[in-house]
Design a protein that fits this description.
By secondary structure, the chain is of the alpha/beta class. Helices cover 58% and strands 13% of the residues. The chain contains eight helices and five strands; from the N terminus they run βαβααβααβααβα. The longest helix has 25 residues.
Length: 206
């Protein structure tokens, strides 16, 4: 099964992926956890570029194509081989992130991104996607606290203004409203509630 997790900044995707991974391990189910951008040697190098504050002159077109290059490498070198041997694949962000951030956030035409996503992935979509939806202010309070605890700093995309992140939030709602594989969960709910909802939805597919 191919399961992706989506959401705006601070929505708790990584926490829920970790919980699901521990559950699968207890059950003896073979799985891999990956992230986007990243997951291969080349993709991780692309991630460094996309996250770095040193590339403020990166055009939105170049940003989009870098995300897609990373994704293509990940799909063909990691995701498809894993699915072929019946592993679960848990992916932190995938095609919907590009629609939300580069499409609705950057105002790149949605249909163009859909075509490029399809080209990069060979049409591979997740079996189910969990969208942990969280308003912008709450999300940034969470990541600010996280960075203060770990002495980190906002990355290039996190540093975009509030209007950009509001467009991303609204974009995710539009994407989810037209796609039955996407399950939207209020990320303000407590962790156990979200975990139980995710497990319940996965059980429907098993």
């Amino acid at each position: 099964m191919f399961i992706s997790f989506e959401g705006p900044e601070g929505s708790g995707k990584s926490t829920q992926i970790d919980i699901l991974a521990r559950d699968l391990k207890k059950k003896g189910i073979d799985f891999i956890c990956i992230r986007e951008p990243g997951g291969t040697l080349l993709s991780e190098k692309i991630r460094d570029i996309l996250k770095s504050n040193s590339y403020n002159d990166l055009t939105i077109q170049s940003e989009l194509l870098l995300f897609l290059a990373s994704r293509s490498q990940l799909v063909n070198k990691v995701i498809k081989p894993a699915l072929k041997i019946n592993k679960y694949v848990l992916c932190d962000r995938y095609i919907d992130s590009t629609l939300a951030y580069q499409g609705y956030g950057r105002n790149i035409p949605i249909e163009s991104i859909k075509l490029l996503n399809s080209f990069a992935t060979g049409g591979l979509e997740p079996d189910i996607t969990f969208l942990l939806q969280l308003d912008v202010d709450t999300g940034f309070r969470r990541i600010k606290k996280r960075y203060e605890e770990k002495t980190g700093t906002f990355d290039r995309i996190e540093m975009e203004d509030k209007s950009f992140h509001q467009r991303v939030f609204d974009g995710y709602n539009k994407i989810a409203s037209s796609n039955n594989r996407i399950i939207t969960i209020n990320a303000n709910e407590d962790i156990d509630f979200i975990t139980n909802k995710i497990q319940s939805e996965i059980n429907k597919l098993v």
